[in-house]
Amino acid sequence: MGNLLRIILLVIIPPVGVLFTVGLGLQFWINLVLTLFGYLPGLVHAVWVVTRRDY
């Protein structure tokens, strides 16, 4: 159930999905800036962060 919630948050607000995945670190801030530049770059980065396996 945690993964489903993370994916739903990732689609609605990408930085929140990244925050729940990796915490308040560099990837969160990168995603926040990308989302401020546009929804699509933030979404792509969030999907990449959440689906990679080495966090």
Automatic annotation (TrEMBL):
Q: Which InterPro entries match?
A: PMP3
Q: Which GO terms describe its cellular component?
A: membrane
Keyword list (alphabetical) reads: Membrane, Transmembrane, Transmembrane helix
PANTHER family, per the entry = HYDROPHOBIC PROTEIN RCI2 LOW TEMPERATURE AND SALT RESPONSIVE PROTEIN LTI6 -RELATED, UPF0057 MEMBRANE PROTEIN ZK632.10-RELATED
Q: Where in the cell is it found?
A: Membrane
What's the domain of life for this entry?
Answer: Bacteria
- Transmembrane stretches, by residue range? 7-26, 32-51
Q: Indicate what this protein is called per its UniProt record.
A: YqaE/Pmp3 family membrane protein
Offer one Pfam family short name for this entry. Pmp3
The species this protein belongs to is Methylobacterium oryzihabitans
Q: What is the lineage of its organism?
A: Bacteria, Pseudomonadati, Pseudomonadota, Alphaproteobacteria, Hyphomicrobiales
Claim: Transmembrane is one of the keywords in the record: yes
Family classification: Belongs to the UPF0057 (PMP3) family.
